[in-house]
Amino acid sequence: MKKILLTFTVTGLFASRLLAQNDHPYHVLATTKLMGNGGIDYVTADNDARRVYVPRGGNTFVFDLDTHDYIGTITNLGGHGVAVDTASHHGFSSSSPVGMFDTVTLQKLKTVAVTSRPDGILFESFTGKILILSHESPSITLIEPKDGTVAGTIDVGGAMEQAQSDGQGKLYVDVEDENKIAVVDLKTMKLVTKYDLGEKGDGPSGLGLDSKNHLLFAMCHSQNCVVLNTDGKILATLPIGNGTDGGGFNPNTLEAFSSQRDGTLTIIKETSPITFAAPETVKTQSGCKTCSLDTKNNNIVLICTERAAQPATAPATNAPAGERRGGNRGGPGNLDVLWVGR
To answer: Where are the domains of the chain?
Structure first.
């Protein structure tokens, strides 16, 4: 009897601690800094191999997802973002041409010619392919990760940004210049339809998907998150920060998230398949506009850059507009990797 009571007490204590932890607000847990040069765009967390990839300038920097330490550099391989195929141990960068590398040796293997203008990138589990999202036709290019050959293209139209797959053959993609979400059938390799995001859904750039409850979270430049179901019905519109360029959804916590250039991270709690709590705003760092999810620790990884100190004689107005606005393009300075959690 005492043993049963003791087990119940310990279990109850553990549950109480877990609930208390979940009630804690998100905050920056740690920041890793690495001096470098050049612009950045996307950050990718490889949850299987526990690594983080950040292309900057003409190279890609690799960090440990658990210790936050710098691991190494894939030289002469830059681009907007990275996607990794665990089975083949091959990674790809969304550059033109696309770069292919070995995830074990961190050596560049070859380049893959594409005819569009690559931007977003992801590994898609249903097809087993690397998908390159472009701002020109063809909108989507599929690459076979084993050998880097082009396996096909899908012409969706419009500027593709972030995409999410349901793992069952449906792909949902932000169409930034059309203010729509494209629905693509990966079985037929064709566009099914496009969902209009309404008057508040201007410039979708980040996207989260709750596959279980069939919900999409479109993060828009209009400083709104438009929530819709996968049939295209708009359910809610919630405020986010200014300058989003990435987002996602954590099925472990039922939370969508959006990173913004203004130095904020917005967390949206799904309280039911049709109701959502008031967004939580996390202070991050100016320019941290893209993010990725650590599914093991339920942490969010963000990136931005800090320009190196300029000589007193150099006027600040010499900096390109992109650097003054967000610090994600141009000259030398620290690459900052932020690890956000509870």
So the answer is: 26-341
Surface-to-core class of residue 8, CB atoms within 10 Å of its CB (0-12 exposed, 13-18 middle, 19+ buried): exposed
Question: If you ran DSSP here, which 8-state letter would residue 40 be given?
Answer: B
The model's confidence at residue 11, banded by pLDDT at 50, 70 and 90, is very low
Is residue 233 within 8 Å of residue 274, measured between CB atoms? no
Give the whole-angstrom CA distance, residue 116 versus residue 153.
10
* Cis peptide preceding 145, ω within 30 of 0: no
How much is the pLDDT for 237?
98
Give every CB contact of residue 105 below 8 A, 6+ residues apart in sequence.
none
pLDDT of residue 323: 35
Q: What is the distance between the alpha carbons of residues 246 and 177, in angstroms, rounded to a whole number?
A: 16
Residue 2, pLDDT score: 36
pLDDT value at 164 more than 90: yes
d(CA 15, CA 44): 32
Name every residue whose Cβ is closer than 8 Å to that of residue 72 and which is 6 or more positions away in sequence.
61, 62, 106
Superfamily name and number for 26-341: YVTN repeat-like/Quinoprotein amine dehydrogenase (2.130.10.10)
Please, which residues bridge with residue 59 across strands?
A: 56
- CA–CA separation, 199 and 66 (whole Å): 41
Res 271 pLDDT > 70: yes
Which run of H or of E encompasses 59?
strand 59-64
Sheet holding 140-143, edge to edge: 118-124, 129-134, 140-143, 150-154
d(C-alpha 266, C-alpha 281), whole Å: 5
Give residue-wise pLDDT tens across range 107-127. Answer: 999 999 998 999 999 999 999
Residues 6 or more apart whose CB falls under 8 angstroms from that of 242 comprise 223, 260, 261, 262, 264
- Both tokens of 243, joined, read 């300058």
